[in-house]
Amino acid sequence: MRQSRHVGRTLREAPKDAQTAAHSLMLRAGYIQQVSAGVYSYLPLLHRTLNKIANIIREEMTRAGSEELLMPALQPRELWEESGRWERYTAVDGIMFAFKDRRGSTSCLGPTHEEVVTDILRREINSYKDLPKCVFQIQTKFRDEIRPRFGLMRAREFIMKDAYSFDADDAGLEASYEAMRQAYHRICQRVGYKYRAVEADSGAIGGSGSSEFMVLADTGEETVLFCDQCDYAANQEKGESGLEQFEQDAEPAAMEEVFGEGLIGVVPLARFLKIPVWKTTKTMIYEADDQTVAVMVRGDCDVNEIKVTNFLGCKSLKLATPERIKELTGAEVGYAGPIGLPVEVRVIADHGVNGRVNFECGANKTNYHNINVNFGRDLPLPEFGDFKLAKEGDGCPHCAGNLQAARGIEIGHIFKLGTKYSAAMNCTFLDSNGKTQTAVMGCYGIGVTRMAAAWIEQNHDDKGILWSPQIAPYQVHLTPLNLEDDHIRAEADALYERLQKEGIEVLYDDRAIRAGEKFGDADLLGMPIRLTMSKRTVEAGNVEFKLRTEPKPDLLPVEDAIARIKAICDR
Fold it and tell me: What angle do CA 52, 53, 54 make, to 5 degrees?
């Protein structure tokens, strides 16, 4: 491609609204243009990268036994009501674009396709002999993000690959899930990411288990926890951990109410009471749908609201307002405790709260705290569960190691759906005994546009993007100088033609601009290899060969340069 004909103007300065490196560099390099909040045009260079990513995904999905189709983006409300998700996606989570057409029918722009694919397969599957089945598509999705941000990371319109498996039983689902998990590993390895596969919460999609594929980057929205001794890794939302255990008091002491004015926060509170922080207790009051819940965690922990939501099975979980807390406890925020709450308040507690002797908790009285509190004597045992937010430094739940943390960008998420959708939508088949059974499903998503943005977040410097040969828009950026010289232009044109005949993808900067501008744009655009021609190199029969990731170029004969390009790009 001749750069003089290229669509995608570079910018010297980052736009003021650019929030991350990928967002800024994509705008500066002319890879995207914003149409409206969270909606972008993918300009030619990015479009080439997206096609390369999609082709890698397509090859690995096919290798894993999945068949490509294409489903409509426009979906009828009735299918979503069959699955029971219409209200959650339109009213509770509110992420779906829904509207009425001129006939009065209500439809949506698909944020995902479990309903449509189940409708397709329930017409295809009659017998166990028709299973397993697995299909995928690469398509534009739509989600009505309230605060679209970070460019393509959290957009309202984006490209995603979604795949769906249908099996006769749980064993079949496990085999399909593992095939997809391995396919995702191959996709990440072929692109060249530094990444981790981690346990994850299934969220609104549902199912019995899921894993996320996280690209490691300091600017990632997610926290990834992993053990320093075993292979345990999880998204912090899903992560489990062990807490350090301490020697307990030999005997329970008498409970006391202690005055401590303005002691908000467990560290100053523990210091004032002359007790360790682990003896303090945080009691958080939540409104969970139509019930009020008090959640207890050890003072050195925080509440994991995702775990609480899953335990309660509620659609909505939010902290009670200060007014509601005062109504329930009689105290200002910061002094809530589990003793003496109204009977309608459900009390649940993290396992780490249990087993302590003489612990502290709020007294439900402004500026007062109870000390030497003990379950069974001062308050009944609550419902226990895993409600704490695992964090760096906690113990690994599977070995004697400790958890470490890194930031990550989710690019893929795979789910064991089970029969959540197939049962609701009557996707059944006859088994070998002639009995009706429900198909067991899995679903597997990976964001194509998000993958491109995640690559840039992980691979850039202060000059621009650092593409890999596997997904770069072009493998080579040809940047000849002195093009006013007819001989040099003729040699540059000849090299451009030669490279294309050799099957090498080339962006040819044939613009009559200064060398500094060419090199600045080349660094910004980020092609893996730059070839520079000038009077000096042409006279010697050489070309200046520079890797984008290396500080200095090499002078090579043209034939050697071509051989080296092929060696790099064929890896």
Answer: 90
Domain boundary among 429, 457, 485: 457
Give the pLDDT score at 206: 61
pLDDT digits 0-9 by tens, 261-277: 888 889 999 999 999 99
What domain range is 272 assigned to?
256-385
When comparing pLDDT for 558 and 13, which is higher?
A: 558
Give per-residue pLDDT as tens, 462-518.
999 999 999 999 999 999 999 999 999 999 999 999 999 999 999 999 999 999 999
Instruction: Report whether pLDDT(92) > 80.
Output: no
- The set of residues, in sequence order, having a beta carbon less than 8 Å from that of 22 and lying 6+ positions away, is 150, 151, 152, 153, 219, 453, 454, 456, 457, 460
| Residue 231 lies inside a defined structural domain of this protein | yes
C-beta pairs of 397-402 under 8 Å, 24+ apart in sequence: 397/232, 397/240, 397/241, 397/242, 398/227, 398/230, 398/232, 399/227, 399/229, 399/230, 399/232, 400/229, 401/227, 401/228, 401/229, 401/230, 401/232, 402/227, 402/228, 402/229
Cβ–Cβ under 8 Å, residues 119 and 71: no
Q: Alpha-carbon Rg of the chain, whole angstroms?
A: 29
Whether 250 is in a domain gets the answer no
Query: How many Cβ atoms from other residues are within 10 Å of residue 250's Cβ?
Result: 7
Instruction: Write the CA distances from 202 to 5, 82, 191, 418, 467, integer angstroms.
Output: 46, 20, 26, 12, 32
Number of folded domains that form the chain: 3
Q: Report the CATH number at residue 448.
A: 3.30.930.10
- Is 18 a domain residue? no
Query: Which CATH number fits the domain that encloses residue 368?
Result: 3.90.960.10
H or E element in which residue 372 lies: strand 368-373
Assess contact for 8 and 44: CB atoms under 8 A: yes
**What is the 8-class DSSP label of residue 298?**
E
Q: What is the pLDDT of residue 205?
A: 65
Within 8 A by CB and 6+ apart from 430, the residues are 126, 127, 128, 436, 437
Task: Tell whether 391 is covered by a domain.
Answer: no
Same domain? For 347 and 483 the reply is no
Residue 49 and residue 183 share a domain: yes
DSSP, collapsed to helix, strand or coil, labels residue 39 as: strand
Q: What is the pLDDT of residues 275-289, one digit of tens each?
A: 999 999 999 999 999
Pick from 171, 156, 166: nearest CA to 65: 166
Whether residues 291 and 165 share a domain: the answer is no
Cβ-based burial of 224 (10 A; exposed 0-12, middle 13-18, buried ≥19): buried
Instruction: Verify that 409 and 379 share a domain, yes or no.
Output: no
**Same domain flag for 180 and 147:** yes
**pLDDT attached to residue 265:** 87
Q: What number is the average pLDDT over the span 440-451?
A: 97
Residue carrying the six token digits 């990444």: 195
Q: pLDDT grade, residue 207 (50/70/90)?
A: low
What is residue 306's predicted lDDT score, i.e. its pLDDT? 94
The pLDDT value recorded for residue 247 is: 94
